[in-house]
Design a protein that fits this description.
With 252 residues, this protein is of the alpha/beta class. The chain has one domain (5-244): TIM Barrel. Helix content is 35%, strand content 28%. Strands 1-4-5-6-7-10-11-12 form an eight-stranded parallel barrel, surrounded by six helices. Helix 1 (32-42) runs parallel beside helix 2 (63-72). The longest helix has 11 residues, at 32-42. The protein is globular and about 45 Å long. InterPro entries: Aldolase_TIM (IPR013785), His_biosynth (IPR006062), HisF (IPR004651), IGPS_HisA/HisF (IPR050064), RibuloseP-bd_barrel (IPR011060). This is Imidazole glycerol phosphate synthase subunit HisF. One of its GO terms (molecular function) is imidazoleglycerol-phosphate synthase activity. IGPS catalyzes the conversion of PRFAR and glutamine to IGP, AICAR and glutamate. The HisF subunit catalyzes the cyclization activity that produces IGP and AICAR from PRFAR using the ammonia provided by the HisH subunit. One of its GO terms (cellular component) is cytoplasm.
Length: 252
């Protein structure tokens, strides 16, 4: 059985970690470097760093902050936000990132997925998909969830996998920040259809939600933010619970 992964997410705005509900109503959640070190020390399997306004503000991810976080941790580190070229990826990998995450740029120019996978290897390329259900149909959204597209989520997930993405970070905008549980149905649907790992994001509120997304949702990894940032669920306790429930975990 493959080990499941627990991944804290640092959503960065103006150099600070923030968290909102349904992608809005952001509030401060602390210093990203300090949080990153805590999560690494607590046994998180990976860390995701998303500069959530980089695309909107038409600026690049805060490279110096990436370097500081990378120096503070000893776990795999994915960085996203404002990445649109192969050169952007080179800079971030050079700053200490292990993987990069693209969303809006991939929708705008799907060929960039092929180019990045060819240049750096699929294992470096994570495609983030922000999805919202509209009248029973799941649609992809871009620019931090601000712009709806006509892309159907399931079809887009298959396309990015076919183009060479090594992983998909699937965030349910409907569930994000609600603490009502992950979007297990669409997560399971995409996980079953693809041969690459799917990271589920959006909606974690208690430990059983993680169990559900690994069992019913068929996710390979689960990502959360506020419940970790505000000390609602300690990562060691979560991993111990999941292991007790029969889910394979890396325990320190």
């Amino acid at each position: 059985m493959l080990t499941k992964r627990i991944i804290p997410c640092l959503d960065i705005k103006d150099g600070r970690t923030v968290k909102g509900v349904n992608f809005v109503q952001l509030r401060d959640a602390g210093d990203p470097v300090e949080l990153a070190k805590v999560y690494s020390d607590e046994g998180a399997d990976e860390l995701v760093f998303l500069d959530i306004t980089a695309t909107v503000d038409k600026r690049k991810t805060l490279t110096d902050l990436v370097t500081k976080v990378a120096k503070a941790i000893n776990i795999p580190f994915t960085v996203g936000g404002g990445i649109s070229t192969v050169e952007d990826v080179k800079v971030l990998l050079g700053a200490g990132a292990d993987k990069i995450s693209i969303n809006s740029a991939a929708v705008k120019n799907p060929q960039i997925i092929n180019e990045m996978a060819l240049e750096f290897g699929s294992q470096c390329v994570v495609v983030a998909i922000d999805t919202r259900n509209v009248d029973g149909i799941d649609f992809v959204h871009t620019h931090g969830g601000r712009k709806p597209t006509l892309l159907r989520t399931q079809a887009w997930a298959k396309e990015v996998a076919d183009r060479g993405a090594g992983e998909i970070l699937l965030t349910s905008m409907d569930n994000d920040g609600t603490k009502s549980g992950f979007a297990n149905e669409i997560t399971a649907e995409i996980s079953a259809a693809l041969s690459i790992p799917v990271i589920a994001s959006g909606g974690a509120g208690n430990m059983s939600h993680f169990k559900d997304v690994f069992t019913f949702g068929k996710a390979d990894a689960a990502l959360a933010a506020s419940i970790f940032h505000f000390k609602e669920i300690p990562i060691p306790d979560l991993k111990a619970y999941l292991a007790k429930e029969g889910i394979s975990m890396r325990i320190q």
